[in-house]
Amino acid sequence: MALTTDERVRAAEEAVRQLKAGLAEVGVTLPSLRIDPLTAAADGTLPLVELGRCNLDTALRLAAVLEEAR
């Protein structure tokens, strides 16, 4: 059974919530993190999650977290 538009959007919202929470735990905030509104409105596809733009400090902290995880 295919997901409804509301179910797809709720799933994407939950993914964004979990990603924000996980990043916050390691001290990283992506200020533009959100659901892409164009893909959220499309029928039959899962919405994309926009990681967005961040400043240099945030990019370096994210890179450090990823390096540490390796």
Gyration radius, in Å: 14 Å
Largest sheet: 2 strands, antiparallel
- In sequence order, what are the helices and strands, one letter per element? HEHEH
Approximately how much helix is present in the residues? 55-70%
Sequence stretches where pLDDT stays below 50 over 5 or more residues = none
What is the beta-strand fraction?
A: 5-15%
The total strand number stands at: 2
Mean pLDDT rating = 91
Give the overall shape, derived from the CA principal axes.
elongated
Strand arrangement, major sheet: 1-2
Total individual domains: 1
What is the overall number of helices?
A: 3
**What's the N-to-C terminus distance?**
38 Å
Structural class: mainly alpha
